Structures are given as structure tokens and as C-alpha cells.
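On clarity, I found the account of how folds are encoded harder to follow than it need be. What matters is that the chain and its backbone geometry are given together, residue for residue. For the editor and my fellow referees, an illustration may be useful. For illustration, here is how one protein appears when written out as sequence plus C-alpha cells:

___
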Amino acid sequence: MNPGSSDVAIVAIGRNEGERLKPSLRAALRDAKLVVYVDSDSTDGSAEFARSVGCRVVSLDPSQLISAPRARNEGFACVMENARDTPFVQFVDGDCELEEGWIQLAARTLSERPDVGVVCGRVREIHPEASVYNRLCDLGWRQPAGEILSSSGRFMGRAQVFKGVGGFRADVQVAEDDEFCIRVRRQGWKILMIDAPMARHDAAMTSFRQWWRRNRRTGRGYAQVAALHGGGEERYFVRDRRRILIWGLALPVTALAAAPFTYGISLPALLCLYALQFAHIVRGCRKRGWASRDALAYGFFTVISRFPALQGLLDYYWRRIRGRAMTIIEYKQANP
């Protein structure tokens, strides 16, 4: 039996991915008989292209909240309607191209490891040289193989596991993959990172504004998932939330408030603290074998990422207090 064609269905999601979507869907169709494309109210002809190459297309109703988790849930529902006995489902984003051979390897791993519910592999940027922001994404994808706490939204999972946990929470727009994996692990399943290429990703991030918005999204995700699961034994994202509050808010406010009483000494002292944090991050990257240029860039942007993340975190709590729904933060369309 060929696990790439008979045991696996693929759910691809996208919103105005343009040319990035075409190789993504063609790679998916190469490896599976059933490919479901879920379109999130695109205006670039994505749905029409998907139909033209043989995908089943699900178009999300824009009158309801549009989000990646909702798209994946509806794509999975379409798979169950058309191929109910499919044991494994691969999820992929429209800006990612699955590597040849991944589907077969992942399906074989799940067949051989009954304790594993979700499996993922290495992701690399298609154009890391295009900008420092793309390069940062490429560095961020690097993760050691083995059992992990969470995959990204690109993974292959057992259909029974997805149904068993109720899929993704549609109201969690950012870090929905972390929230999903928490519930998967709580049901006793393992999440496995394979030391093999899974997909190539196109961040298409070329401006500081895009980078800022992406990290603002991250801060909102930390806040929401910590609110949902921060009280358990893992204290999920609680440390990340605390780190953002300390470095992005508490220390700057304290230094500014103390400036009149310290003759301004508190301000250069604050810069020294950031410099020490930067040096600590760079040293850790160098120990992992990263090139000096990569370590310096990663260290610098990690330090300043606390500020857009703080904006996202505060935005989440402000909306929560006022009872307002979360809105989509799209960084790929943030160019001036």
C-alpha cells in the first residue's frame, strides 16, 4: 500500500498567497489523491486556481471569524466527508511547499509508532537571502529532532487524534498550534519531530513593519494561550509572557521613572541590561554552531521583539476586558 496516495489526505489553507500557492498545491497533489484547499476570502483568484488543478475547494464564509484554525477544521471536515476512512491528514499552509518524500516518511512513522499522534519535520525558508527578516524565520525554524511539546500548524496527524481533541480552537488565531498540541499531549499522545525535510516556507517578509506585525501577533498568541493553559503544570507561555512584561514594560518604565532621581543614570543602566541580554542570546546561538552574523542578527531582533510582542499582549487583554473579538493581524500585507 502506498501511504502517500491511499492513507493520507492533505489540507492546504491560504489567504491571498498569490504565486506562492501554486507550487504548494502542485506539491500536495503530487503526493495525495485527495487535496482540500480552504480559502479564507482571497481576492487573488486562489480558489479558482485550486479548482483548476484538481483540488476540492472550501471557501470560508467571511461573515464569520476567518482564521487559520477555522480553515484547518473545515478542511478536515471536508476530508471526512469525502474520505472518511483516511487515517492520516497532512496540514500545510499555502506559503509552504511540501518536500518530496515527506508524505511517505511521515505516514510510515505514524504507522510504526502507535504512541505518536502528530509528526512534523524540518522547515526551511525558500529565500533566506532576500532579507534579514526571512533569515530570522529560517533560523527560528531550527529545532532538534525528537519528542517535542508542539509542532507548527504544518504537520501530519492521525485523524482519530484530531477528532478526539475536537480539532483546533477557532477562536485562537495565533499560537493555535501550541494550544492544539497541549490538548493532544494531555490525551497521552506524543508529538515527534523527525530529522528530515518537511517543507519549504516563503515568509515573503521584507520590511521592518512586517516583522513588527508578526511579533505583535506572537505576543497576542502568548497572552491568549497562557490565559487558557497557564494554570496547569506546564505553565504554558507563562515565562514568555513574564519575559515580555519585564523587558518590554517594567524595566523601561522603571528606568524612566527613576531618571529624575538618578540624574539620568538609570537610562544608560537600562541599555546595559539590554546589552547583557543581547550578549547572552548571541553566546547561546554561537554554542549551537550558528555563524556570527546569524547569531548577532538573531540576538538583536530577539531583544527588540519584546516591544511589538508587548503591544500584542496588551491588545489581547484590552480586547478581553472590553469583550471585543480578536481581529486578524496580517503581516504579509503590511508593506507600505
User: Anything to note?
Assistant: Strands lie at 8-14, 34-39, 56-59, 88-93, 96-98, 116-125, 146-148, 155-158, 190-201. The domain at 8-206 is CATH 3.90.550.10 (Spore Coat Polysaccharide Biosynthesis Protein SpsA; Chain A). The chain has two domains: 8-206, 213-322. Residues 170 and 243 are 27 Å apart (CA to CA).
